[in-house]
Automatic annotation (TrEMBL):
GO terms for molecular function: iron ion binding; iron-sulfur cluster binding; oxidoreductase activity. It comes from Vulcanisaeta distributa (strain DSM 14429 / JCM 11212 / NBRC 100878 / IC-017). Residues 24-56, 57-86 form the 4Fe-4S ferredoxin-type domain. Coiled coil: none annotated. This is 4Fe-4S ferredoxin iron-sulfur binding domain protein. InterPro entries: 4Fe4S_Fe-S-bd, 4Fe4S_Fe_S_CS, Fd_FixX. The keyword Iron applies. The keyword Transport applies. PROSITE patterns: 4FE4S_FER_1 (PS00198), 4FE4S_FER_2 (PS51379).
Length: 97
């Protein structure tokens, strides 16, 4: 299958496969920092929507669909994300580049 530019991003993401480790490779270090974080860029810039709004200004994180792009680590203004690659053999497998 060639990479046709007209294929929607959602469809391309659906073509990936994940071997999910039960232990998350990414962790929000201090939820209280998220309460103080006004713009919460992780909610908007994670391409896999791994971050969602939680109660009382917190943010919930789900590692299952992570694309290992590193964006959340870069955009977090509080350096509040502990980020590692998944253990060997786990994580996303890109099928079409
Ligand atoms: S960008 Fe960082 S500090 Fe702000 S809500 Fe997201 S994880 Fe929390
Ligand atoms: S590494 Fe990328 S895909 Fe994974 S949680 Fe961070 S922004 Fe989302």
């Amino acid at each position: 299958m060639s990479l046709d530019r007209k294929i929607p991003i959602e469809e391309r993401l659906n073509s990936n496969a994940w071997d999910v480790d039960q232990r998350p490779h990414i962790r929000i270090i201090d939820p209280d920092q998220c309460r103080k974080c006004d713009k919460k860029p992780c909610l908007y810039l994670c391409p896999a929507r791994c971050y969602t709004p939680g109660p009382d200004g917190t943010v919930l994180f789900s590692h299952e669909g992570c694309l290992e792009c590193g964006t959340c680590r870069v955009v977090c203004p509080e350096n509040n994300i502990e980020w590692n690659y998944p253990k060997s053999g786990f994580g996303v497998q890109y099928r079409f580049g």
